[in-house]
Amino acid sequence: MKISYNWLKQFLQTDWDAVKTGELLTDLGLEVEGIETKESIKGSLKGIVVGEVLTCVQHPNADRLKVTTVDLGNGDPVQIVCGAPNVDAGQKVPVATIGTILYDDKGEGFKIKKGKIRGEESHGMICAEDELGLGSGHDGIMILDDTLANGTPAAEVFNIEIDQIFEIGLTPNRSDAMSHFGVARDLRAGLMQQEINLELISPSVSDFHVDERTLRFDVEVENKEQAPRYCGITITDVTVKDSPEWIQNRLKAIGLTPKNNIVDITNYVLHELGQPLHAFDAQKIKGNKVLVKTLEEGTKFTTLDDVERELSSEDIMICDADSNPLCIAGVFGGSKSGVTENTTSIFLESAYFNPVSVRKTAKRHALNTDASFRFERGIDINMTEYALKRAALLIEEYAGGKMGSDISDFYPEKAEDYQVFLSYENAYRLIGQELPKETIKNILASLEIKINSETAGGLGLTIPFYRTDVQREADIIEEILRVYGYNNIEFSHKLNTSISFDSNKDSKIENVVANQLSALGFNETMANSLTKPHYATLSENINEEANVEMLNPLSNDLKVMRQSLLFSGLESVSYNINRKNNSLKFYEFGKSYHKFNGKYQEDKHLTLFVTGNRTNETWVQNNKQSDFFYLKGIITNILGRLGVDKLKTTPSKLDVFSEGITLSLGKMKLVEFGVVKRSVLKEFGIKQEVLFADFNWDTILKITGNKNIKITDLAKFPAVKRDLALLLDAKTEFKELYNAAFQSEKKLLKEVDLFDVYEGENLPEGKKSYAVSFLLQDETKTLADKQIDKIMQKLQQTFEKNFNAVLR
Prior knowledge:
Number of helices: 20
Largest sheet: 7 strands, mixed
Distance between the termini: 67 Å
Helix content: 25-40%
Radius of gyration: 38 Å
């Protein structure tokens, strides 16, 4: 949230330095994340002075240029070449002197230098409106008041405002501070603790009155629970035009683009007092009646952004007498009822809508507006009429409007302030220090919390309705503490604590592996469990129907729970690579979430990501690229550290791998790893190879947690290992070779393992090289060379026949 310091000073006349003020606001709980200097005109017209054109003659070498001499007030006239058609002798004009920096509409600057234009020297630039940032006109140069003295800085002629803008990280509970007035109210309380007592100046509405009741609108609210208060007034004879400069400057300072006087005033009051307003073109409201109601499910409505939306039967709508929708209450206006340059009368709305209803509507339609931001958190219901009068008076002053009716105020049940009793004893206990009772009372008074009664043990208090976050005794104590200052609380230099030991065996196993990975140069990551729904489309192994969807997602990018840790990990890999950190080793302990047949399932995983070089290059060690077998070695070491061996190797069935294998213990799948497909990496903008491993951590905990010693006889007859180096088509996968090998030799073949893959130089195009090992064993006798050679020849022939393999 952006807050203008100059705007704040309209409520509190303070001369505190902006940095000091920012520190106090942070101490009060309104964390200032940054302070930016903002100029109403970029560059503040530095180097621009008033000049008088003494002479103006045609350029000898250009039909559209003129050569002028200009007096800049220093007694030494300069020559300036100018292309404006309206330049003439005797004019007072703005001149950018040598060294001045002018800015274009994108904020990019260029420096005025001495130079020659078509052979004639030019010592400056006579400027148009748009070149100075004073308007959009570029038909000719600006002509200034001829009474201005030559050499007068332009910054003294035009209203240049320099402001400091606080970027406040507002927490959701502080709805009372969603405006300049609310921040000023908190700042005043903080200053009082610094023994600086300032009056909180609020805009006066005492001049509000209705002269003629020429345009009356009836207001009918269908459901008072959804709209507890609704105020409206008609204003006639308005002229829609540009806002006054001071309003435009206020809005620009906090990042808003001025539209016209009516819209700008509603935005101004919104950010001034925190009360959203909406102006309707009165002529577009049929039947001179405003209905606050809900409409049928699926009703079509086009909003201000020209997007047609389907309404929910729960959306609060502002409608005319014929129930035609005009606006989504508290969220967004309609395209056909807004104020245009032809508007002459308006219906001005100021209301309090149910925060829960507004939030659901805003999320349902993926709309996040300044109005919904405030309604969702709960505004001050007692500010509604006051803000309406404030805006109406501004419209009367700057749009020539006249009040066309009395204020319609639907407010059937007045909101009650909160009643809380504060115990001194509880306050001292939670604060950890006994504060003087007078200090507590002064802080409460500065926060507009009324003391109704006082006893020896505490205070009976009335909390203003706008403090929606202060409804319990603990909340009151927190308010006292934040205003008094956390840094002012004394604390003991002695710390008493109890040390707890984690006896959870699962945690110990996790720590063993984490320490091992950290020692190998891995960094632990913790990715968000919420992710993008479309990631499920990147793999056929993931079912979109199994997505666990959030009921009220924060955004479309955080709409579902992740089914795989791969994609959130690749986001981290991509983030680092884009910042020139190309060699990465990550690990994460996390969960995946699924919904099968209406039931929810959580599975814990350990995932590894490896990309780039294995180690940093040194004078004794060259770079060595991480590869499939480097990752395999790490995985084998992890499992070995946990006492898991005699693993079965099979091809991975995950389609996110271009090359991948699975390690299993019996029928239990422990880990799948491999090289991530380029098509998957492309989704994340990753162009280098990434290796990924996914441990089924629940299974690993199960086998390590119930590890019984099993004794078996040693094999009486030796196993024999043979290797084949095969040249294959690049499309051939290891799992095809694996399956073919076991179909060819079912009795004596025990293991098939891939231990090298090569693609690159010295190989034909479209080919790759596989190095595959085969473990042969007969449990009844020692294998003879002839038997072994016969099996290997049979395997070779199978590969040649089925895959056009060539022995290298």
